[in-house]
Amino acid sequence: MDFSPGLLILCFLVCSVVSQPGISVEPRAATVRQGESVSFRCQVGSDAAESVEWKRTNNQALQDNVKIGPGGSVLTITNARPGNQGQYRCTVQTAAGRKSATAVLNVKFAPKVRLTPAGPLRVRMGDPVSVECRAAGRPRPKMTWKRQGSTLQLVTKEANDANIIQWPVVHPEDAGVYICQAENSEGMTEIKVELFVEGGPWSPGGFGQRHGDDGGGGTHRHDGVPGQR
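That's the Ig-like domain-containing protein sequence above. Prediction below.
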């Protein structure tokens, strides 16, 4: 059978594309708990790899707990930590060209909490004050505020991934220790801040007590923000 030159050229182009090696990373995505280990394997098609290179897609350097196995095809992360989260790109050079594939790592970890300002807080009676609680964690933590010595959950404001406790007008009985709790499936973390009210006494025995609060440790919420009258 005779083939025209145009058909031969078309076949050459199509066959060249089909014969190029495919590349994949297994698994394409992985989720581990903090402290666990995980490996990603870079797999190439029929052509032998001349070189294999692993990089993070954000161009950050591989951390000290990330190791590349002999031959470069396997990337292993031991004792995974939150900083290991992200995408990893495997790039392979073969005789047919250069190919890349990526994998995604998620690390589940207990909440890490910080307060702004950190305290202790010294506020003049009648002045406003607020404290912002932020928590990092995976899964995303749920944050709540309570007063030390009370199980009552305080009403707070949420804004920009922060949980904010506010006193529009500080009263002497607002003095005390307040606790921000952050919880997810990996654990619970809490952090405390102490509020001193200048110009009014601080009564440690009054933690969690407000007008009409019998201190019985119920599960109901306040009807207003702290310090609001």
